[in-house]
Design goal:
This protein is an alpha/beta fold. Helix content is 28%, strand content 27%.
C-alpha cells in the first residue's frame, strides 16, 4: 500500500501495450488527471514505435511523472519479428512492481473522474459476490469518440459495458473462434455475471493476476483473447463480467479515429507480401499453442467451460450464451 498524507492507500498498476498511437498521451493524461488519488496510480507502457513523435510524447510524459515506467522498442517497416500484441502485453506487464491491483487496458482508453476509487470498490465487491479473490473482472469497455467541433473533447457515445460471446462456427482468419458482444443488461439484472472469456481491453485483478496474467507472448492479434483466456481459466481464475451501464474506462474504437488521435494497426507496418506472411505466422503460432502438450489441460478446462473448441469452434447455440458458473468447480 502507498501512504498518502499518512493514510494507507492501495496502489493500482495500469499495463499498456502501444505502437505509434497518438491517443496514448491522452490515455495517460486522463488516467492521472481523473484519479481521486493519482499518487497511487502507476503505469507500465511497452511502446513499439517507428515514429519520433510517439516516442517523444511518451518520454516527455515519463520525465514529468515518476509513476510512468516504459520500455521502448524501435519498429521498422516490414519487420515481422517486432510485431505482435503478445510481446507488447507481456512487456508492459513485466513493469509491474507489486502494486495491489493490475488493470490491463488498450493504449486508446479514457478514464472517467474517480475511476480509481470506483474500480477498486467494484472489484472488491465482485470478490465478495464470487467468494474468491482468484478472480478477474473483465468485459468490453464502452465506446468514446471526439466531438466533431472540438477534437480534444472526448464523449462517451455508448455507455454500455459489452458482454462477449462466441459465434457459431465462425472464425477469425479461418482459424481462431470468433466472438461478438451483446447488451446483456436488458436480460440480466445481477451485478456480476459469469463470462465466457477475458477481454484484453479491460481486465482488472489483484496481485494474483498481476503475477500470472496469462499472456501468450507469441500472440499476434486475433489470437490474443483466446490464448489469454485459456491460460487464465486453466490456472484457476474465475471470470466475472461487471453488469453495469457505465464502466469508468472507455475505448476509442477504430471507426471513431479522427485527425490528431490516429494509430497504426499492425498491418500498416507491412507490405502486401509481409501482410500475408504475418497472417500465416498467426495461424501457425495459434495452432502450436493449442496443440502444445503443456497446454492440453488448460485447453480442456476452457473447452468444458466455454463450450467452444479452440480449433473447431462452437457448433450450436443450444448452450447458454452466459455460463452458469464463474469457474468449473463452483456449484
Amino acid at each position: 500500500m502507498e501512504c498518502i498524507q499518512g493514510v494507507a492507500v492501495k496502489k493500482i498498476f495500469l499495463s499498456i501495450a502501444a505502437q505509434d498511437d497518438e491517443e496514448l498521451k491522452n490515455t495517460l493524461t486522463s488516467a492521472f488527471e481523473n484519479a481521486d488519488n493519482p499518487e497511487r496510480v502507476f503505469v507500465g507502457v511497452f511502446l513499439s514505435a517507428m515514429h519520433k513523435k510517439t516516442k517523444k510524447e511518451l518520454t516527455n510524459l515519463a520525465k514529468q511523472n515518476k509513476n510512468i515506467r516504459f520500455t521502448l522498442v524501435k519498429q521498422r517497416k516490414n519487420n515481422l519479428k517486432t510485431l505482435g500484441i503478445g510481446k507488447g502485453r507481456r512487456g508492459a506487464a513485466d513493469l509491474y512492481l507489486d502494486e495491489d491491483y493490475m488493470i490491463q487496458i488498450d493504449c486508446h482508453s479514457y478514464f472517467d473522474k474517480s475511476w480509481d476509487t470506483y474500480l477498486i470498490s467494484l472489484f472488491e465487491e465482485a470478490i465478495s459476490f464470487v467468494g474468491d479473490d482468484k478472480l478477474v473482472l473483465t468485459g468490453i469497455p464502452p465506446v468514446y469518440r471526439y466531438c466533431c467541433t472540438d477534437h480534444n473533447m472526448p464523449l462517451k457515445t455508448e455507455r454500455k459495458t459489452r458482454y462477449p460471446f462466441y459465434m457459431t462456427s465462425s472464425f477469425f482468419v479461418n482459424t481462431v473462434p470468433r466472438w461478438m458482444d451483446i447488451d446483456i443488461i436488458k436480460n440480466k439484472k445481477e451485478k456480476f455475471i459469469p463470462v465466457v472469456k477475458a477481454s484484453p481491453a479491460f481486465i482488472i485483478g489483484n496481485k494474483k493476476f498481476a503475477n500470472n496474467p496469462g499472456i501468450h507472448k507469441k500472440a499476434i492479434f486475433y489470437d490474443e483473447d483466446l490464448t489469454q483466456s485459456i491460460n487464465l481459466f486453466g490456472n484457476g481464475f474465475a471470470f466475472a463480467f461487471p453488469n453495469i451501464e457505465d464502466l469508468p474506462i472507455s475505448h476509442l474504437d477504430s471507426d471513431g479515429i479522427i485527425e490528431g488521435h490516429e494509430r497504426y494497426f499492425f498491418l500498416d507496418y507491412l507490405n502486401k507480401e509481409n501482410n500475408y506472411l504475418i497472417h500465416e505466422q498467426l495461424k501457425e503460432e495459434y495452432k502450436n499453442f493449442i496443440k502444445d502438450p503443456n497446454n492440453s489441460d488448460n485447453v480442456e478446462k476452457y473447452y468444458k467451460y466455454s463450450k467452444v473448441h479452440p480449433l473447431k469452434g462452437c457448433f450450436s447455440l443450444e448452450h447458454d450464451v452466459v455460463p452458469k458458473r464463474f469457474r468449473l468447480e463452483q456449484s
